[in-house]
Specification:
Strand content: 35-45%
Structural class: alpha+beta
Number of strands: 5
Low-confidence stretches: 1-6, 130-141
Strand order of the largest sheet: 1-2-3-4-5
Order of helices and strands: HEEEEEHH
Largest sheet: 5 strands, antiparallel
Helix content: 10-25%
Number of helices: 3
Length: 141
C-alpha cells in the first residue's frame, strides 16, 4: 500500500488485546500471522467470528440458527453418533485494516452493517458500542 506508511505486517498482539478488551475469545498466532476471534451472541446473531491476517485482510462471519436443530441418536455398527440437522443463516463481510488503531472503528462499522442488513433484536444493546464506549455506530467502510 504505497504512500500509507503501512509495511504489510500488523501487530497480532495489539489486535488480540483490542478484541479481548471488547469481550471476544481470541487466538493469535504471530508465526502464522493471523488473529482469530469468536464471540457468542445468542440473542441476535448466534456466533460471530473474525479473522485478521498480518496484511490487514479482515473476514467476519455471523451465523445464527433459523430453527431449532433436529437431533437424534444414530447407530452404525457398534458406534453411536449424535446427529444434528441444523438450519442456519450466514452473513459474511470482508474489509481491510492498515493500522491496529483502526480496529475499534472497523468493529463499529461491522455492527452498523449488521444493523442495516438484518437488524438486532429490539431493545438489545449493540455489543461493539458497549466495548468502544460510543453510543452511535458508524459505518467505517
Amino acid at each position: 500500500m504505497e504512500g500509507t506508511g503501512f509495511d504489510g505486517r500488523l501487530d497480532m498482539a495489539a489486535l488480540a488485546g483490542t478484541l479481548e478488551a471488547a469481550g471476544w475469545d481470541v487466538m493469535a498466532s504471530p508465526e502464522i500471522g493471523e488473529v482469530a476471534a469468536r464471540l457468542e451472541h445468542p440473542l441476535a446473531w448466534g456466533v460471530w467470528t473474525l479473522v485478521i491476517d498480518h496484511s490487514g485482510r479482515v473476514r467476519f462471519t455471523a451465523v445464527r440458527e433459523t430453527r431449532i436443530a433436529d437431533g437424534r441418536l444414530v447407530w452404525r455398527g457398534q458406534r453411536q453418533f449424535r446427529l444434528l440437522k441444523e438450519a442456519q443463516e450466514v452473513l459474511t463481510l470482508a474489509s481491510e485494516l492498515t493500522t491496529e488503531e483502526e480496529l475499534p472503528e472497523l468493529l463499529r462499522g461491522l455492527a452498523a452493517v449488521i444493523q442495516a442488513e438484518v437488524g438486532l433484536i429490539e431493545g438489545e444493546a449493540n455489543p461493539w458500542e458497549e466495548a468502544s464506549g460510543e453510543q452511535e455506530a458508524t459505518s467505517g467502510f
